[in-house]
Amino acid sequence: MRSEEHAGWERDFPVRYLLVREDIDGEGEGVLWGRCAEVEGLFTDPLPLPREVLTLRGCPRGSLLVQAVAAVAEPVRLLGEGMLSIEPEDPSNDGPARFWDLEDTAVLAQWPTPGDPGCVDILVGTGVREDDFWGGRRLPSSPRFDLWFPSIRGDSPSGGCRSIDGLLTPRPRRPTRPVHLIGCEPAAPLLALLCRPLPQQSGPITLRCLDRHGRTMTRHRLDLATVEARPSVLGGALIDVTVTDPGDDRPTLAARAVREVWSDGVPTRPGQWARFDAEGRSAWLDLTHGGPYGPEGLSGGTYHLDGQHVTDRAGLLLALGEALLGPGANYGRDLDAMTDCLAGGFSVVPPFTLVWHHADIARDALAGHVLHHGGGLSYFELTVHLLREYGVTVELR
């Protein structure tokens, strides 16, 4: 379903959002559920998860996780964001793997596992987000626990353990923050949902955010389990709809100002992202696309990267995308995706020359961003290394 086909109506204010029921695989056209003039409460910074204490029992000494936290010289204490996967040995009986998020994880202590000199027990403080699907609170009969911490290694598990004390405990429900759809023109499916008693039984809906041309800038998932409606403050036949518990797929407060820039269309001037802080730049990166590019990629030539404002990771990726593909484009939203672009495809592909102006700004700003899976290189150094490894001639000026 093309958003542009539903972006126009005979009113004094534009359509800025569409409600669309989309196929899970994204292959279908989608069904229109409604059009809205505005949405209030969409932008919000996530509430931190309550702090908990977990004990990771029986972590093998040879794992990257144990090597990092038990290092004699400089042990890693702040693991940051992570993920826990609980893999069943027999998926036919126990279902698929469960995935739990670990937020702002810190190592509190570590000691040899009693009775097993080849393993270590690790005590961590963290925020835990449970797996809501596939019976997340029920462990498989023979589970395998894998831990992923990008601060140690991003492309594979950092380590594992035999069991986790404190994982399956009751957790208080966090307060919900509703989303208000203002000036909504409901289509038949939404009207039918609103006629049902609370709570309504409905799968998730996609909220498409439009620019002034009717192009979809980005999408967010809303849970419509509890929806209430009333006549709209904008009058006419419109309604205002409150989604009481819309879920966690919400843009941050920093994204609001970024969206205002993009609401005029895909940016055409380079460096418009530079005035935003790290969170705003990350939100800008989320809106970028991978083009324009040719059907078989483009190699050769010289490209100039303006490094005056490359003071964080998102800024580096934005400057690189602009240098190679122009404003509003990206050459990967992280280093793994950048490597995919370098390996070939429909984008700019090596060999080519990249002249990086004011490279010292990025080198100094990112000196402390050391990636353990990058051989101890900083984010800047690893970026340059990957570019050169794949055949790019990088000139640092």
Task: Write up this protein.
The chain is about 20% helix and about 30% strand. It is α+β, with helices and mostly antiparallel strands and about 400 residues long. It has helices at about 65-70, 90-95, 190-195, 255-260, 280-285, 315-325, 335-340, 360-365, 380-390; strands at about 15-20, 30-40, 50-60, 80-90, 100-110, 120-130, 145-150, 160, 165, 180-185, 205-210, 215-220, 225-230, 240-245, 300-305, 350-355, 390-395. The longest helix is centred in the last third of the chain and has 13 residues, at about 315-325. The model has no long low-confidence stretch (mean pLDDT about 90). It folds into 3 domains: about 5-45 and about 175-245, no CATH class; about 50-165, no CATH class; about 270-395, Barstar-like (Barnase, Chain D). The strands form 3 sheets. The protein has a 7-stranded antiparallel β-sheet with strand order 12-11-1-2-10-14-13, with helices on one face. A 7-stranded antiparallel β-sheet has the order 8-7-4-5-6-3-9. A 3-stranded parallel β-sheet has the order 15-16-17. It starts with 16 loop residues before the first strand and ends with a strand.
Q: Which class of secondary structure composition applies to the elements?
A: alpha+beta
Q: Gap between N and C termini, in Å?
A: 47 Å
Q: Could you state the order of secondary-structure elements as H and E?
A: EEEHEHEEEEEEHEEEEHHEHHEHHE
What is the number of beta strands? Answer: 17
Q: Name the average pLDDT.
A: 90
Write the layout of secondary structure elements.
Layout: E1 17-21, E2 31-40, E3 51-60, H1 64-69, E4 78-88, H2 91-94, E5 98-112, E6 119-129, E7 143-148, E8 159-161, E9 163-165, E10 179-186, H3 188-194, E11 205-210, E12 216-222, E13 227-231, E14 239-243, H4 254-262, H5 278-287, E15 302-306, H6 313-325, H7 335-342, E16 352-357, H8 359-365, H9 379-389, E17 392-396
Parallel strand pairs: 15-16, 16-17
Antiparallel strand pairs: 1-2, 1-11, 2-10, 3-6, 3-9, 4-5, 4-7, 5-6, 7-8, 10-14, 11-12, 13-14
